[in-house]
Specification:
single chain; mainly alpha; globular
Length: about 325
């Protein structure tokens, strides 16, 4: 039964949001269990049907501001629930894409309710992980929207680092089919590196800007890593070779943070991982690193060696970098 008043619409949206949250929690837990995927697949059709109805008319909001805010909130909850379904059912999610894609597109274009747009970008990552290269029929339009959002002043800046990171997810998902986007994406990444480097000095004096700059760095680093890993063996040589010196200088910029105790662990991890991806993917990177021994990027490797917080999961990258440098010396 349709809600008649603004108060009823607000309450309906609140209830829908709570139910979507329950769906998200259940799907996440089932995805971690041995027999969970079978259960998810059994109820996936009815679950997606319900979630798509919510996305089509979240809380039947309209009129009062409170109802509109509640509608935006339930839209986010429904999107996140769809993301959990995608993760749970994997490539089987492809059959829902024709019905879900219009809402994904609408979310990416929703610049006014920026939290909805940000949530949608996150769900796109889940969809990439789930469907792999079956995303290809939608990828041209998705990439155009993401690139447009990056260049638009109307898009909240908090969304842009996540968009950069999503380029890496798209590359991992599409593999060789991502190659046609590489030139446009690397151009955006180069601009983002310049922006990050330009605001690094000011960020040292402004905690909010420092946090944002680290988010921007993470987006750049994750994008490049995804592209290096996603493109087939040998395909990264041409389109990414010119970016290698720029990435190395970006690593130097990150390492110049005023003191090692100010390093962001996630940023250091992503930087060292990216350097590892480069030396294992592009020929000649070891020689470049060897020619720049003593520069700031080496501080990151030293910090990793001395830090217990990062564990041993970066050993592969450190060993790859060290081996490539020694081989080129």
């Amino acid at each position: 039964m349709a809600a008649a008043t603004s108060e009823q619409r607000e309450k309906q949206a609140e209830l829908q949001g709570l139910l979507c949250g329950v769906v998200q929690t259940l799907c996440t837990r089932l995805a971690k269990e041995d027999n969970g995927k079978a259960a998810l697949l059994q109820y996936a059709d009815s679950t997606m049907e319900a979630l798509l109805r919510v996305l089509a008319n979240p809380g039947q909001a309209g009129g009062a501001a409170g109802a509109a805010v509640a509608a935006a909130s339930v839209h986010e909850e429904a999107m996140q629930a769809v993301g959990s379904v995608a993760i749970g059912v994997g490539r089987q999610f492809s059959k829902y894409m024709p019905s879900f894609y219009p809402y994904l597109k609408a979310g990416l274009l929703n610049h006014q309710e920026w939290q909805v747009c940000l949530t949608t970008v996150g769900v796109l990552t889940d969809v990439c992980d789930a469907v792999g290269d079956e995303l290809a029929p939608y990828s041209d339009e998705i990439m155009n929207m993401l690139i447009h959002n990056l260049g638009s002043d109307a898009v909240h800046r908090s969304i842009k680092p996540q968009i950069l990171s999503t380029f890496g997810d798209m590359a991992l998902s599409l593999g060789a089919k991502f190659e046609k986007y590489t030139e446009a994406v690397t151009r955006m990444l180069q601009q983002a590196m310049q922006l990050s480097a330009a605001q690094a000095a000011q960020a040292a004096l402004d905690d909010d800007l420092a946090d944002y700059n680290n988010e921007l760095r993470m987006g750049i680093l994750e994008a490049y890593s995804g592209i290096f890993q996603g493109l087939p063996s040998g395909s990264a040589e041409g389109p990414l070779r010119a970016d290698v010196p720029l990435i190395l200088e970006f690593a130097n910029t990150i390492a110049r943070d005023q003191a090692s105790e100010e390093y962001d662990e996630l940023v250091v991890r992503a930087t060292v991982s990216l350097l590892g991806d480069m030396v294992t993917t592009v020929q000649g990177v070891g020689s470049l690193l060897a020619s720049q021994r003593g520069q700031d990027w080496e501080k990151l490797l030293s910090w990793v060696h001395e830090s217990d917080a990062l564990g041993s999961d970066l050993d592969w990258a450190v060993n790859a970098i060290s081996g490539a440098v020694q081989a080129a010396a």
